[in-house]
Amino acid sequence: xxxxxLAEISTLYGLKPKSHLVDKExxxxxxxxxxxxxxxxxxxxxIVWVGSCLDExxxxxVKGLGSLLRTNTGDLVVNISKNQVFLTNYVRGAACxxxxxxxxxxxxxxxxxxxxxxxxxxxxxxxxEGRVSPLWRLGARERAAYWQLAVHKYRQAARGEALRQLLxxxxxxxxxxxxxxRIYDGQxxxxxxxLSFGKFVYVSEGHTVHLNYAHDCFVEANYIGLAxxxxxSGYTGDTxxxxxxxxxAVHPMSDIECQMLFAYLTYPHxxxxxxxxxxxxxxxxxxxxxxxxxxxxxxxxxxxxxxxxIAKRMGKGGCELKSEDKRLDVVPxxxxxxxxxxxxxxxxxxxxxxxxxxxxxxxxxQPKVRKxxxxxxxKPFPRPLGANQEEPLVEERAIEDEDIPE
Length: 406
Fold this sequence. Notes:
Layout: H1 2-13, E1 19-22, E2 25-29, E3 34-40, H2 44-59, E4 78-80, E5 83-90, E6 94-95, H3 101-124, H4 136-147, H5 157-183, E7 188-192, E8 200-203, E9 208-211, E10 217-221, H6 222-232, H7 237-250, H8 255-266, H9 272-279, H10 287-306, H11 308-315, E11 319-324, E12 327-332, H12 351-365, E13 376-377, E14 398-399
């Protein structure tokens, strides 16, 4: 369809009708670079809202997100052959990696800036119904109830034990979120679908990261996108701390939001597809392997909850992180405060008392004279020149402590 309508699309946008396949994306060449062509099935108002949000983020200085291109008449989406088409700018680069500290922190800062600006943008640009993510907990509760059907079929051995533990984790996660949402229902922010480090690209020109799929955005709770990146890190401690520190330096999380984050992480997202297969009669879940991975995840969550305070301090600039051999050492930055003497009134310090205190400190610093414990042996003075060498010498004697005057 795109090949047949490429000439019409190029005419509407004022571009040359020559496409290039870049990273499996059909792109056109513009004056600024590349433009990816997208088909959309849905309401046109959704695309208009996406374009408005990305423009507002750019006005607020948020860089690293793809934007929508406008036609010669200023439209963001066009109808071609009964299909809706829109273009976004496309930046080439290497996929980001969770092992790269700079890329992890850059992604955390970018996500924090987007979430920080979301409150004002959503106030002026109310989200359409098609761009509001459904409440995750309700869908997860229904899915967990569906998994219960497999418990009666698979009870034995390690597979049955793994299935029971996964269902317990799901119930614990959902129950915690239900209790927390009674107090606080989360902050709605602009987020992106199925976030992972590999969706971002590193741009060597400018030493930045970029998200080409920013047009696939919607509104959901702020902790979900951050949790998806944490799960994508593969349970690595240093990556998680760097990501959380960079995010909270821009957009700090409250205590209840942190609890929601951990409740979401507890849910067995990693085994959701295998659990779905078990309910369909395809037991692909490996019992022993799943139990080992689940134990590793629990240890990772315990470690992360203990070090979340460190991540907050790192985000505020209160300490520096040194990572060597996958071990974390937090070095606190000590700020020495200089006391300021109060002037006037009761707080005035007498100068004489200050001098006496200083003299007392000097006396304490001076070494004290102590009597020698061992005996001192005095030897005779050398003979004067011209003296009789045969004259007997005075006998050497030891001087006791009593001979030394006080």
